[in-house]
Design brief:
Elements: H1 2-42, H2 46-79, H3 86-145
């Protein structure tokens, strides 16, 4: 019986590790596709690319950290809104607004820094390219999963 428990636990851990690895692989693949897409669209010189990509990666990282923090501190509580008092709900709402302001500040600082490196026209092209990439990704997802 003890061997069965060990076997089941080992099998569960292996399946979990494989699933996590596949999810991480998918995220890495999407990130690589996004980098290639943006690189092609912006047609950056090697000098501009060396200055641009660290800014872009820092921006993405800062946004991810903020979103994860927001999820743990706000979004998870929104799911249980029925169990919150009015006072608790007000505190969660204020925290949500604070996260929104912080996200705007991160984006504003990033856009100012990027504009200094690649110029306003390419910064606008970057914004458009990111939107186009998202649309393309959604379209491919829908085609693969039969949702149109």
């Amino acid at each position: 019986m003890n061997n069965l428990k060990n076997y089941l636990l080992t099998a569960f851990l292996m399946v979990t590790a494989i699933f996590y690895g596949q999810e991480k692989h998918k995220k890495d693949k999407i990130k690589a596709l996004k980098v290639a897409f943006i690189t092609e669209r912006l047609d950056l010189s090697s000098k501009d690319a060396q200055a641009f990509w660290p800014l872009y990666n820092k921006y993405e990282e800062d946004r991810d950290v903020l979103r994860n923090k927001e999820h743990s501190e706000v979004r998870s509580k929104i799911k249980d809104v029925g169990s919150l008092s009015e006072r608790e709900a007000n505190a969660v709402l204020n925290k949500y607004l604070s996260f929104e302001e912080e996200e705007e500040e991160i984006e504003r600082d990033y856009l100012k820094a990027v504009t200094k490196v690649i110029g306003a026209k390419k910064t606008l092209l970057l914004l458009r390219s990111e939107d186009e990439f998202k649309k393309q990704l959604i379209k491919q997802y829908r085609e693969r999963h039969g949702n149109r």
